[in-house]
Amino acid sequence: MPRTWFRSGLAALALLLLAACGRERQPEVEPPRPGPIEEMVVTAPADQPPLPPRPEPLPPLFRDIEKRTFQFFWDTTDERNGMTPDRFPSRPFASVAAIGFALTAYPVGIENGWIGRRQAVDRTLLTLEFLHDSPQGPAETGTIGHRGFFYHFLDMRSGHRYEPWVELSSVDTGLMMLGVLFAQSYYDRDDPAEQRIRELADALYRRIEWPWLQVRPPLVSMGWYPERGFIDHDWTGYDEAMLVYILALGSPTHPVEPEAWTAWTRTYDDSWGIFQGQEYLSFAPHFGHQYSHVWIDFRGIRDAYMRGRGIDYFENSRRATYAQRSYAIENPMGWKGYGADIWGLTASDGPQRTDQEYGGRLREFRHYSARGAGIAVAFDDGTIAPTAAIGSLPFAPELVVPATRALVERHGEYLYSSYGFLDAFNPSFEYDIPLKTGRIVPGRGWVASDYIGIDQGPILLMIANHRNGFVWEVMKRNPYIRRGLERAGFTGGWLAELQAQEAAEAEASAREASAEDGRVDAPAPKD
């Protein structure tokens, strides 16, 4: 449950943090320009490789955001089985994607001194054992998944499929599995509990039968229902499914072939173009530019598609972030509150599915929905989600820091609370009708009533990545992630550095072995 310090003094704390941040705006930074950027090429390891430039220190507000957001995962996860709720306080069911974010969040708590390593080990081991030991199979009820995949939503107590409308999800299984593999690489001590974490993580990943979902090969289907079979749609076009294909390519037991990546990237072209002055691979809801990047450092590494375009996926997300902000400044639909420092469209809660008159026109509003602006299909009903901006911190800190300050300063009284930012708000929605969720704040519009796990995760973990690359550096040690990237055709950057380092170590080992053989074979000196 929430800690005592969360329940008192929130308004005073916010004012103090804002004062510490200062009111001055950061100088405007020239936005990324369309066109290619130079690719990083590593030919040999340096004796003392240059350190990457350190980011500017974050205002104290971000430490408070991290702590509160971490506590969401630590406090709301069921201590009996490790199930993390999809949302809180409504807490209707667990989300396997939220579990993946939670497993990654616990080490952030260790590194910041908020929990002890043993606490995190115990919670992680409990979670992995429950996931591993819960029944799998084709039955409609009473199982947690099938063929290594997991159902999107699970019962908080039993861990079984929540309801008949819940699908066996390839992407949500992937989000959970990234957290599982992160745990495998982070808990590296010679300790029985940490060894068991590594073994369970390996077993969970190895049993996923990725080719089973290649119903229309080589693409991967979105999922399966026991009642009616495979979902008719495959993962095509640029979106969060990058993580699905990388995981499927990296499997040591049931991998897909590299042609799956080629076929997937072949569907990109309809999404490449210029939007809001940025030339990039577009996906309208911003989570598609964030989720894979939470765990994988795409700076400087490129696949064949991005080599052809002259940028990398990190730069692509940076341009998408600039385009999001530019769209809010233009505000073509005339929604309240949009501007240079208040922006961010992604998947989030909304007030209700309804059509209402706004600005002299009938406008569509939605409840939970993917919202976004971009080259292809987009939807905007005036609902802003803080995770869209704050989860983009590594891409464009010069935009995200002022946006985060503004969110707290202008909306924090009702949007920023015990576990950080509530899911979303809509200043334009002030209609006196029944709401699906949330509440109307007089004079401020609609505000969500829940925190959502898959929005909390990018906030916490991308702040950690911006500070010191924490999640990225751990994941670089995972052989499965590296194998998936290499089989997808990624080269350059840190992948090339690792390859050069391994080649140098192999050469040194060979020289040492040769020298040892020479000492063994050399004749003994005569008296």
What does this structure look like?
- By secondary structure, this protein is α+β, with helices and mostly antiparallel strands.
- The chain has 2 domains: 63-266 and 477-501, Glycosyltransferase, CATH 1.50.10.140; 274-468, Glycosyltransferase (Alpha/alpha barrel), CATH 1.50.10.140.
- It has helices at 10-21, 60-76, 96-111, 117-133, 170-186, 192-206, 242-250, 259-265, 291-295, 304-309, 313-330, 386-390, 397-415, 453-468, 470-475, 479-487, 493-521; strands at 87-88, 94-95, 145-146, 149-151, 153-154, 168-169, 223-225, 229-230, 272-275, 278-281, 347-348, 354-358, 361-365, 369-370, 416-417, 420-421, 425-426, 439-441, 445-447, 451-452.
- A 5-stranded antiparallel sheet has the order 3-4-6-7-8.
- A hairpin with a 2-residue loop joins strand 12 and strand 13 (361-365).
- Helix 2 (60-76) packs across helix 14 (453-468), helix 3 runs parallel beside helix 5 (170-186) and helix 3 runs parallel beside helix 14.
- Residues 1-27 and 40-52 have low confidence and may be disordered.
